[in-house]
Structures are given as structure tokens and as C-alpha cells.
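Contributing new records

If you add data, match the layout below exactly. Sequence lines come first and carry their own label; structure lines follow with theirs. Keep one chain per record. Anything else will be rejected by the validation script.
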Amino acid sequence: QVQLVESGGGEVQAGDTLTLSCAASGSIGNANTVAWFRQHSGPLRNLVASISGDGNTVYVDSVKGRFAVSRDDATNTVYLNMNRLKPEDTGVYYCKINPTQNQYYPPYIIGSWGQGTRVTVST
């Protein structure tokens, strides 16, 4: 089973840029979608962006034009490049392979979710 590890978060100012990484323990597979979720001010994790196996991307309205998700199948890594960050982008970011919904809730099963990486945007 593929395990995911998120990294790259930090504390930044509004307007700054940050890139998150999602490293897989094995091949993600070129037919698999990888998505980024954000958890903030509660237990729910909401979809932010996703990328399909052939490179097609989807973004929620709040991040369109600012975020870019990409993948490198050679290194089994997916990235989330976040530009012009806003305070509302604050949260813990998680990645997930082939999500079946745009919102998740506890319990979060070990092996299905990583530890996430925290992003804090100040103004």
C-alpha cells in the first residue's frame, strides 16, 4: 500500500509563495488521481486541488489562479505551489490518492492519511 508524507509548510505573510510536497512510498500509478485537502478550524478536511494521472487539474474557486498542482511520476511526488497566499489559506494540508469525496471527517485511518503539513498565513 502506498503511503504519503506531506512537507513544505511554514509560517508566511499574505502575498507570499509556498510549495508543498507529497511524497509517496511507492509508485502512485499513472491512472491515479492525487488531491490536496485542507483542515482548518475544525475536524473536516476539504478539497483544495487535484491532479489526474494524465495531468488534468481541478481547483476550488477560492484558489483558482493562485495555486498550481503538479506531479512528478519519476519521483512519485505531487506538489502544490501556492502563490499570493491569503490568511484563509491557513490550515493543515494533506494529500490523498483517488479520493471519493471532496470532504472528509474523522476518524482518519493511519495508512490512508499522512501527518499533514501546516501552513500559517499572517496579514
